[in-house]
Amino acid sequence: MRRGAVIQLAVFAAIAAAICLAVAFAIPWLPESASKQADRIHFVYWFTTGIAIAVFSAVASVITYSVWKFRARPDDDSDGPPIHGHTKLEIWWTAIPAVLVTAISIVSAIVLAQNSHAGADPLKIGVLGRQFAWQFTYPNGQKVGYLELPLGRPVKLDITSDDVIHSFWVPQFSQKQDAVPGAHNPLVITPTKLGTFPVICTELCGLGHSLMRSYAKVVPPAQYAAWIKSVGKPVKQSAGEAAFGQFGCNSCHTLSAANATGTIGPDLDKLKQYATQAHRGSLTAFIKESIVNPGVYIQPGYQDQMPHTFGTQIPAGQLTQLVQYLAQNAK
Ligand code: CUA
Predict the structure, then answer these.
(1) pLDDT in tens, 284-327
(2) Across the chain, where does the E strand assignment appear?
(3) How far does residue 161's CA lie from ligand 1's centre (Å)?
């Protein structure tokens, strides 16, 4: 190949790469970053994508250029020239990808190490996934259904599950971590933006999977300090109502007294009517059986979807309070 052709090819490849990069950067592929860890992950993403675009442009340019410049004439029936390989070229096209792939792995390893480093004094919050709700346990022992985080302080989540495998994901924090029964998986987040971001379960975990959502609220440190004090105070909520929220009943059931609007399980506002149809003893006996042994009687129109684990999960005292609460609020 002549020198002129190589230069022409290089210019061609550079223009193609510039167009691809401009298109890539013009489209907002990634959610806005709201944490230091997300910034680093976005850097790895663009580092890798930039390399991919450069390689793609070079290869596609060589192919296009060859098809254009070296195509056979329609009346040319002769054999092509016998070629025995090109050692120098082969060394280059092996060495360059090896260097690029190694560079990607080094950058990724550094980012992984930095992202799992929580510093000396992280805020530790327990995360429990269960069908189909998230529960967050703060350092003062308070259990809350959403994540409240102070801006700028590293937070170390300790993620686990009560039943099946779930996965914790906040798109703006760019990281996912599985919630596995019996395992405690860590995740470090250092929020850099104030705001409210969705917490999403990103592992198919049952019928209510798509509804297994909460939110992460990032607030100034002073506001967090005030919040964590106030959340420790007893709320004007009956023990039964608290249990209703704590065990995630609201994610699947409707109950107007608790402002719950779930539609996966039977409408608990209609419990009296259901109990009459079911002939399973008194209203409270029926409710208790439906929580502890949900498979025994299935309300027509619904499926056997309720976890069969509440009998062992809910302590006896709380179970009684929950049954009383439901019985009182049934219409
Ligand atoms: Cu929990 Cu999907």
Answers:
(1) 888 888 888 888 888 888 888 888 888 888 888 888 888 888 88
(2) 123-130, 133-137, 143-144, 147-150, 155-161, 166-170, 175-179, 185-189, 195-201, 213-219, 254-255, 260-261
(3) 10
d(CA 26, CA 123): 37
Per-residue pLDDT reduced to its tens digit, 55-75: 888 888 889 888 888 888 888
246 Cα to the center of ligand 1, angstroms: 17
Taking CB atoms within 8 Å and a gap of at least 24, the contacts of 228-233 are 228/138, 228/139, 228/140, 228/142, 228/148, 231/138, 231/142, 231/144, 231/148, 232/140, 232/142
Ligand 1 centroid, distance to 298 Cα (angstroms)? 23
Contact call for residues 148 and 217 (beta carbons, < 8 A):
yes
Q: Whose CA is nearest to atom 1 of ligand 1?
A: 166
Cβ proximity of 223 and 153 under 8 Å: no
* Tokens, residue 280: 């399973």
Q: Which atom of ligand 1 is nearest to the CA of 132?
A: 1
Q: Which token pair is 43?
A: 């850097």
CA of 251 from ligand 1 middle (Å) equals 12
